[in-house]
Amino acid sequence: MRLYKKITLTILVLAFLVFPPKIYALDCAIPDPLQSKQEYEAVFIGKVISSSHLTKNTKLEVVQSWKGVDTAKVKIYEDNDWGNTYKAGDKILVFANKSYGFWKVPLCAPIQQNVDETDEKWDVYGKPLTLKHSAGQLPLYLAVMTFFLYLLNYYFKKRKKSGSD
Question: Exposure of 33 by Cβ count < 10 A (0-12 exposed, 13-18 middle, 19+ buried)?
């Protein structure tokens, strides 16, 4: 019985040594900044609003954009195995492409973290785009509320007229 236990234990130890857990390796070349601007559909610096470790999506407030993004806020998606998770407030230089209507950061995209948008090294990307600031849902909300108040006013005026007769 002891020999059986020793053989079983030896086989288990060897199995862990021979069959290691899944190992990933990724090696990316650092591209030239001008070449990167041509390869990607969007190049911008964003300040992290929120980031999900599970889904690897990050909401950003666009600080400066040179290509592709002209809105004040944007959401980017990264690969679930390789993507980064950022802290709120981090400023990152993003290189992304559109994929099914969403901004996707490809593997080996030369993302840089903790960047300063005032640094002169970003001048190689050219003149930044003018960002469009969206009012969001506020105009629709105001229109609906105005219509509702108009109907309420109409109802009370009609009720007052019919009650005084």
Answer: middle
